[in-house]
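Summary for the steering committee. The consortium agreed at its last meeting that each partner would contribute one worked example illustrating the joint modelling workflow. Our contribution is presented below. We chose a case with several input lines so that the handling of multiple components could be demonstrated. No manual editing was applied between input and output; the record is shown as generated.
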Amino acid sequence: MTIVSSTPNNQEPKSLQPKGWLKYFSFSLDHKVIGIQYLVCGFLFYLIGGALASAIRIELTSPVSDFMPRDIYNQVLTLHGTIMIFLWIVPVVNGAFGNYLIPFYVGARDMAFPRLNAVAFWLIPPAGLMLISSYFITGAAESGWTAYPPLSITTPAAGQIIWILSVLLLGGSSIFGGINFIATILKLRRPNLKLMQLPMYCWAMLGTSILVVLSTPVLAGTLILLSFDIVAHTGFFNPTLGGNVIVYQHLFWFYSHPAVYIMVLPAFGLVSEVLPVHCRKPLFGYTTMVYSIMAIVVLGLVVWAHHMFTSGTPPWMRLFFTIATSFIAVPTGIKFFNWVATLWGGKISLNSAVLFSCGFIINFVLGGITGVALAQVPFDIHVHDTYFVVAHFHYIVYGGSVFVIFSSIYHWYPKFTGRMLDETLGRIHFVITFIGFNLCFAPQHWLGLNGMPRRVAEYDPQFAFVNQLSSVGALLMAISTLPFLWNVISSAFKGPKAGDNPWEALTPEWLTSSPPPVENWDGEAPLVVEPYGYGKKEDQQHSEVTDQSNDFEKTMQKK
Amino acid sequence: MTISSSVEKKSELEQPQPEEHGDHRLFGLIGFLIADGMTFAGFFAAYLTFKAVNPLLPDAIYELELPLPTLNTILLLVSSATFHRAGKALHQKNSKLCQQWLIITAGLGLAFLISQMFEYFTLPFGLTDNLYASTFYALTGFHGLHVTLGTLMILIVWWQARSPGGRITNENRFPLEAAELYWHFVDGIWVILFIILYLL
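What follows is the complete predicted structure of the assembly.
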């Protein structure tokens, strides 16, 4: 029987699990421990990826290549992209918060497959270490995170093969996680909890997991073919042997465009959890939010070729993918207006979590607008492979996903550790991050429109000043990590006690102790059918919940 | 803490109770098979695009011999039926019969692999000869890997069914059902592969 950890009557696995801090370094089956493992591991990789980004920005302060050799620049660029996507954002927005929150939200004691869950996490550290160590041993891959052939076939093979192996492991981890989330949400849900009563993050994770299960295997297959080209000298993607590089691009983007939604849909869900709590208002337009997520899932699978408008795509394909991509603006716009409407007229407590969520809304709408612009063929051909694309992408994944990760850490840290974070440090962190981020990436729109190509260490001297401006922004972003790090480390030991529910939230993870017990609740899981019942119904809802727990305590005391 | 210990005591009292939630392993396996199917879908899409877009030089075009792959198709289809019979025998609690059908299925899987190897050795082209040859070997090889894993699974299930403790019973059907589902999936993929690769 593989489903042991969730049954309290089986004592054996529990005694094998280490207690205290050691459990975070063990093959723990507890979804909360695995969630924290994902989060901390992802953050360590974020620090490495951030250091690489700083190296890139230092190199770009001058128009000539003087900070590092050009091949090293290519390696740094590739590692930065791969680490940030596959080892930071995807594992954290999916694995970390998904593992921690989803079982609470569906009223379960653990994920559907706890062991598979632990396996999925423990694939990540070796894959990440392998990827980074390739830099020191043979030189890392040099072909960017897209690994387009023929570049990836002609650059040094060893680094590229290690890159492929590492991404395959991370993809496997992602698929295992995705299957686990789908099974947990659909099968472990409390019997009398309807799908339309789930918190929005469950819907976001359901949509994301569908995308993961459908698209990640295609990337895996493609990378296997690519590795054949490199190792066995077949010619799938090698034009000199009769192969076709465009097929690689199609297959790659069939995964990697949904990957953007894999990174940003969970972030949508997390924002939808954070905002109602701190605005004391129900989430605006729950039903439209659900349909929007599912529309994004469906549309997200049929827009991949908008990355390839300059790859000789035929006109009908350009037309189809332009229209399909533009359509995505509709559900995304609905979500944007729903968040604004949630804020509208609410009793907003402007703490760090809300500040980062509002920062997300602002950045994301800017990134979304450039996204719609990029979907238009004439404009895309003009700015393809320029810094405009870099700016757009970072507005989505940094301004979008990473802001939400910080927001979520500020929101759920009391639940993770039982202690509050320092609010002043949090606000300093937000202000420096927001200014630094916009200073770093907003000027890159201008650079791109004026024709500065991406992925180069040298550029036309006329771009020098704007690049230096951008590098100052990057410096601010690097500095902004320091108050955050100090905050999370010192608060873990000295922060004021948070209590069970410092935000007076209604979602199920707050209706237990902080940090929660191994079985999530000391007794029957609370049934929360209205996770966003703030405002006028608040007192009623709240008393209902407390009544339930009182009943439970009474019955327990009788026994 | 006192509350949690009393919960454990309570559940100890009701010792024979089943798991708190049902068995979702088959659901998880279906999720995995969908993912696996998407890998094949990617390969098929690549193959069909290559075929449509990249014309081969005249000396690189081969007529594939049909008899051997047709035999392979029959072998796999029959093995799907025999596996189904094994499951039925288990339903009737006839462990002996179930084991027989299992070993026949494993034998058919092995026969498929041998026949596939024989085809590989008789083909006039190698892995790196041209794009078509590479794709042919990649597709059939990836499928062959699945058949190999499937055959191993059947043998493991057979071994477990043979064990005197009777680890595969009508009450503990999951290992057999999982292997069966996987095997039907691999057979289904072969039928698509046969049509696309040999008949088209």
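Residues 1-13, 541-559 of chain A have pLDDT under 50 and may be disordered. The first helix of chain A runs from residue 12 to 16.
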